């Protein structure tokens, strides 16, 4: 989650074995049959899909990786077994596109040097941020504390600190309209940036970088307090000083320097192109004319991959759960094919973690109906839908569709709540005026080593699947 097609000739799945992406391992076993009837969503089947897709053997399913190719082949095999029509390139389920990628070549590093030297631990004490001005590089310098790093609307959080050639420590609070903290620090001459935030996750590496970059690490507040110790101040003291300065321009400057020397590094590959592909299957409605319009159900298949030290982000909830529910919805709805008025498209997207690249490629490349953006009745995006929490969350970009999902949940006795928009592949379709919503669970785990199949449970998959199967069927059978 960020929170990531040229359509060829169509062949019926019954015509023979499907083509697989190059180098994709086989066989990919089908989950054992479960007890539910053909038209009912089966949470046990969906959990079996999660277990396979999020196994360590998939290597975290980074877009363009062998593990992603393997996972895409698995989804295609399931689509074929269900009887969906291959709706990708050249009569296959795979819709290829070329996309940029950037990845780590070494673990990010952070340490305090000098007499009280200390080494901090990646994914525990700190993590890297990649995209825009934040990229590859190393720095060893003293710290300049710069509050929220605002430089706008008469506010200058850098006042009082000598940032040039130093490592800027951004403590917050952020000021709306204050500009990018990293960009502002770079403009002041910073050699690197430390920002307080969640440090146990791997943030999505965005392969769109400025020509000149500086290393950026996200650190815990405890680490920030450790680095500030020589000044006798804490993060809370600096935040109070920033707020005072913003409220009263005559208050003392909030920025200051700390003699502590820090060494930091982020090591990345150059941005390079890879062959990526979405997996697309079609459940065609019987009526030739009405079938030209379609409901889309999708979720991203990619994860954030494997760290250079070999640690795998298995990406079970974010987002093996999404394609797992997509597969099982396809199986359940295929039993109701005769009653459908409109077609249903099922998609597993690549490249969501790098900035919705797969769904953007779909929207740009798909040129036939059903499937092209203009033919879509609605798009339901499934992300972080395998655990946790007691309420389904439904994004707000399409109020009528949001209400439809929430009403279906209420009928099934399942709690739901509205949230704002953005953050996942539904955004691609919202931009093109397709009614689209993101659906997940109110508590979720993502982008950590702990996002393993065991955190995803049958009950959450079943509840979400029942709601969304009902919604998709209702949309596909409506006049």
Characterization of the model:
The protein has 479 residues and is of the alpha/beta class. It has two domains: 13-103 and 276-477, Zn peptidases (Aminopeptidase, 3-Layer(aba) Sandwich); 109-266, Glucose Oxidase, domain 1. The chain is built from ten helices and 21 strands. Strands 1, 2, 15, 16, 17, 18, 19, 20 and 21 form a nine-stranded mixed β-sheet that branches. Helix 6 links the parallel strand 16 (294-300) and strand 17. It starts with 42 loop residues before the first helix and ends with a helix. The model is unreliable at 2-27 (pLDDT under 50).
Which properties best describe this structure?
alpha/beta; 24% strand; 479 residues; Aminopeptidase; single chain; nine-stranded mixed sheet
Distance between the termini: 33 Å
Shape: elongated
Which percent range describes the beta-strand content? 15-25%
In total, the number of domains comes to 2
Which CATH architecture of the largest domain is right? Answer: 3-Layer(aba) Sandwich
What's the helix and strand layout?
Layout: H1 43-53, H2 66-82, E1 85-86, E2 94-101, E3 109-112, E4 118-119, E5 126-128, E6 132-134, E7 137-145, E8 151-152, E9 155-156, E10 167-170, H3 181-187, E11 192-196, E12 209-214, E13 216-219, H4 221-228, H5 235-247, E14 256-266, E15 272-283, E16 294-300, H6 316-334, E17 343-349, H7 357-365, E18 376-382, E19 391-395, H8 399-411, E20 415-419, H9 426-430, E21 436-441, H10 458-477
Parallel strand pairs: 6-12, 7-10, 10-11, 11-13, 16-17, 16-18, 18-21, 19-20
Antiparallel strand pairs: 1-15, 2-15, 3-4, 3-14, 5-13, 7-14, 8-9, 15-17, 19-21
